[in-house]
Amino acid sequence: EDVEETYIMVKPDGVQRGLVGEMISRFEKKGFKLTGLKLFQCPQELAEEHYKDLKSKSFFPKLISYITSGPVVCMAWEGVGVVASARKLIGATNPLQAEPGTIRGDLAVQTGRNVIHGSDSPDNGKREIVIPFLCNKNILSVYDYSRFLIC
Ligand code: DAT
Ligand code: MG
Q: What DSSP state is assigned to residue 120?
């Protein structure tokens, strides 16, 4: 298998609930390499770009307002087969269907609050990683998250 890179994002509920370390720890223990990390308040237009494949879905507006509701932790993880392996560590989209032992299976209940994102293909990994890491927009003036270091 190839060395790949995937985009992992701890969603706002995961950050607010203090689960960032727990989630990072699972990827570290598995043996993957952290190659990028950023606390980020995602602007609406970048959230829409990230989830552009879901634009036609009825839940799209709720999804965008959720993902922009607070800081997210954006990460790039590298390793052999990391894209599919990270999806296994994360578990099913609906946390009630996610197996115990997976991140969503252990830490979440609702699909709309499923604490973490992981790319579904190497191409989407490449596409998604650049969204937060190339953004230089200073949003501190828009959101009062001054205790966080953003952008
Ligand atoms: P995943 O995050 O497992 O890759 P996805 O790409 O199909 O799942 O959808 C992206 C996110 O959108 C998902 O994490 C939660 C939300 N979502 C998906 N299906 C949903 C639904 N039926 N109702 C509400 N939110 C949904
Ligand atoms: Mg997806």
A: S
Q: Which residues are catalytic?
A: 117
Could you list the beta-strand ranges (E) of 25-148: 33-40, 72-80, 116-118
> Which DSSP helix (H) or strand (E) runs through 5?
strand 3-10
The answer to whether 132 touches 40, Cβ cutoff 8 Å, is yes
Interface predicted TM-score (ipTM) of this complex, two decimals: 0.99
10, 66 in Cβ contact below 8 A? Answer: no
CA distance 142 to 97: 37
**Position in ligand 1 atom list of the atom nearest CA 90:** 3
**pLDDT tens sequence across 102-117:** 999 999 999 999 999 9
